[in-house]
Design goal:
Elements: H1 2-95
Amino acid sequence: NLLKTQTGCHRKNRQSNRQKPEITRQAHQSTVLRSLHLKGIAEAASEQATALQEVNNAVSTIDQGTRQNAAMVEETSAASSGMAQQARQLKGLLNEFTLA
C-alpha cells in the first residue's frame, strides 16, 4: 500500500512538473496582456487630458471674446446716449431759427 501511494505521488509530481512550464507560460502571457491593457488605458487617459486642455483653451478664448464684445456694447451704448443728447441739443438750437 505504501509503495502504491508513493508511486502515485511520484506520478502526480511528474505530471505537475510537466504542467509547470505551461502554467508559467500562461501566467506570463496573462501578465503581458494586462500590461498592454494598462498601457492602452494610460495612453487613452493622456489623450483625453490633452483634448480637455484644448477644449479649456477654446472656452477661454470664447470667454475672452465675449468679454470684449460686452465691453464694446457698453462703449457703443454710452456713445449712442451721448449722440442722442447732442442731437436733442442741436434740435433745440435749430428750433430757435425761423425760415423766411
